[in-house]
Design a protein that fits this description.
Shape: globular
Strand order of the largest sheet: 3-4-5-7-6
Mean pLDDT: 83
Distance between the termini: 60 Å
Order of helices and strands: HEEHEEEHEHEEHHHHEEHHHH
Largest sheet: 5 strands, mixed, barrel
Structural class: alpha+beta
Number of helices: 12
Strand content: 15-25%
Radius of gyration: 21 Å
Length: 323
Amino acid sequence: MSKTIVGQIVAASKRRPILLVRGWQQPKSISWAGRRVSNIYSLRKYVTAKFFKGFAGAGVSESALIECDNGKTYIVKFNDVRPDYLYPKTLPNEYLAYRLAKSLVLPVPDCELIWVPRSFIEKNPQLRQRRKSTSPVRSAGIHFGCLEIKNSYTLDHVMIQGLMRSLRLFSKIRNRQEMVGTIVFDTWTLNGDRVANKGNTLLRRVGEAKFDYYQIDHGHCFTGADWTHSQLGLVSGAGNVLPGYQGLHSQAIRRGCFEEYLTRMESVDDIQISSAISIVPSAWKLNDLDKSTLKTFLLARAPLVRSLLYGAFERSVPQSDVT
């Protein structure tokens, strides 16, 4: 590495924390950066919190709406560093699921790592408030942000407003075929939360009578936000979310509809999975055993998704709907 590049990295360390592929840490000194620079083989982009705009949603994560230095607003979930926090895998699940969804070319909003300085927390004391004792403690550090999608509605809101029937909603969703990709993804990652929580499906209004579909909120993938190594080992070959899908998603299911997304999923290899897992920030406390367990789970489960989906499809869909 040239002296010029080393100098740029050292200079940058004075302004912001260096974020490594294997996590992030705040540089203690210029000499530290110079001494370790030969081991830096990639720098991870992140954005910095600038303006607190309120809270978003009613979930256990108690996400905050924050505008960052790139001018965009994100729904931010905070990393709780307490050892007894009930949902310690929320952020690793979110970040890994986002990268896997991107690899399958699924409709997920852009996500970023969000750097929240201590001064930001001090300037916005509302962030220290929590509705419940189980809610995350918000502190300075690296957190997870999902881009706010303007002019959008969660599916539960749409159902409450009665728009599904009145607008014949399914036919008005421009990318409705991508819903089957979500079912493939949720089966692979064993995410049953979208079936139970209609707030994990987002529809953005486009013009007067069209919508774009997004899948959001993946904190409960891999059996949940508190998964353990033994849990993932037991369920790697079991569990199917397809029978739980009703209403909007079920309208997209037809014979052969899964093929495109199954092919994409089956082409994701161990190197891609390892790469996605390896850049989860170390501050989120995903240890080596956690990473190995996740990789084994995803690799073991991928070849089974096809039979899980088509088996459930043949058993549950009326014959008149499968031709």
